[in-house]
Amino acid sequence: MKLIFAGTPDFAVYALSALLAGRHALALVLTQPDRAAGRGLRPHPSPVKRLALEQGIPIAQPVSLKEAAVQDLLRLVGADLMVVAAYGLILPPSVLAMPRLGAINIHASLLPRWRGAAPIQRALLAGDRETGVCIMQMEAGLDTGPVLLSESIPIRDEDNAQTLHDRLADLGAGLLMKALNDLEHGTAVPRQQPAEGATYAAKIDRAEARIDWTRPALEIWRKVRAFNPHPGAASRLRDEELKIWRAAPAPHSGIAGTVLEAQARGIVVACGQGSLRIEELQRAGGRRLAPAEFLRGHRLVPGERFGN
User: Which of 120, 106, 91 has the alpha carbon at shortest distance from 176?
Assistant: First the structure.
């Protein structure tokens, strides 16, 4: 089949790599425009663009897919199918209808749970015990289309957003290749999503990453995992900004935000319910440190207070 691929971040690279290793003809890659990044704010290509350039695949980076010139380009490709993975732009109905078989999307949740932009982080924040990937036929609604294939995986206590992202991206690439085979041979069986159980995975706001120590330790622990590696769960100590990258619930109790222990094995901070043992943290402008390293240069005693 002749394909158009649309994707932007690392999650989409897994799928694009699988397509490049497969037998289908990849005619065009769509990815978002280069973004300014780094200290010099120079334009940086997306991970998908870098891979497409390495492989000599034609690339287009429209700001919108609603423009007539962009739609003319897509129409000229004459694709059988469009494959979408974390692209980041809205696909108008006219674009969805162009390929002979329409468009399919790789979505990192078990639909209809966590439709939307941040399904991985929302699953962790909610304390879900499992998640997965759906290959979905795209339609005008937000992640509402029929599901062609799905597979679930457990969410482990040691998972954070990065580890879960990598497992789901790898799973999604494999499911994509199965879905392409089914579509090519006419054996795909679309399954309508149930009406019940739908939830919305809103885009992450940096303000959500601030730690409120009056909340239960279990909730804060989920936040630490959900916001690793971006944007990082944040707190303050002695008017200094800190990022907390790894932690675990602990049974101790005390006044919320109070340091209960400051030892090499961990810094224990009281929460609204229970406490949290901090196992990796970072000062502004510094590197990530284990508690033993942090305490060597930053003496901390029980009774000191973390703030929001």
Answer: 106
